[in-house]
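Single Protein Entry

Contents — chain, fold
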Amino acid sequence: MEKMVLPGVKHVVAVASGKGGVGKSTVAVNLAAALGQEGYRVGILDADIYGPSLGTLMGVADARPEVVDQSLRPVKAHGIACMSMSFMTSAKTPMVWRGPMASGTLQQLLAQTLWDDLDVLIVDMPPGTGDIQLTLAQKVPVSGAVIVTTPQDIALLDAVKGIEMFTQVRIPVLGIIENMSTHICSNCGHEEAIFGSGGGERIARDYGVSLIGQLPLAMAVRTQSDRGTPIVIAEPEGSMALTMRSAARHVMEQIQQADQKAPVINIMDD
């Protein structure tokens, strides 16, 4: 199946999870911010058609993209090019659509957005392994995926399904990020693994991929997200920022290594 070319985009990275509620969108925007801090030109597409949250997380919930010759210029926030279905609807408008309609909308957002010379486009996927995931895999050349999970057994089971899905569609898993690894008390600073421990490491080992980040459940992440500022930007020297920047470097190293391994075809005249 022929895949669409995204002008102005060098690499596409999907951020996915097997289930909702694991903080995937929060991780996605902070990964985008971390990539920006590492010097890359970054965009982020909110592919969760039914529950878009990018506008709120990036502090541009009321923004509207500029229309240019039947295309859309992405909204800029914190130096990142952003596109989301939330920019086209109100916060109270539900997307009461069947799967094919959502998939068609995703293709339009990808193809009709004027991405401007991006090193990497982060795609914040909806939870699960359904129509949107399959559409992205079939229609777009995806460089790799980052899987987000929590230490809970049920989340790990669904994360495994996500890894298996990307394996089936031949998209490499660049790494696993375990969110809510520990809870940090905002009063005393005590750290406790209230959701269990070791799960992310176990599935990373089982599938031969890297655990590229373990993030705590911390009050500052929630408050900064509500304010529309990713924690990586709000606290650039904090532990979360350092972890996400390390994860960002790992992602780009994996992509660059894959580029170097790609075959080079030389065409010579006889």
Observations:
- The domain at 12-259 is CATH 3.40.50.300 (Rossmann fold).
